[in-house]
Design a protein that fits this description.
It is built from two helices and five strands; from the N terminus they run E-E-E-H-E-H-E. The chain is an alpha/beta fold. The strands form two sheets. Strands 4-1-5 form a three-stranded parallel sheet, sandwiched between helices. The radius of gyration is 13 Å and the shape is globular. The relative contact order is 0.34.
Length: about 80
Amino acid sequence: MADSVFLSAGHGGKEPGAVGYGLIEKEINLQTLLGCKAELERHNVKVFSSRTTDENDGVYEEVREAIASGVDLAVSFHTNAG
């Protein structure tokens, strides 16, 4: 298991991502990130995250944050419409 993980919730702020059936991608992505973060921390994994509120950093900023954190693994959550 990785000792440290960087989690990224896709979209956020003014960028909602996919929207349909009353669901908004940015909200699903953030809730997924927060749930994973809590579970990983419960197993003593150090977790860094791109956001914990409804905001949007550009993809390049998130990549810079992930690299700077020196984590073992980086994961970006997206729940596209289909």
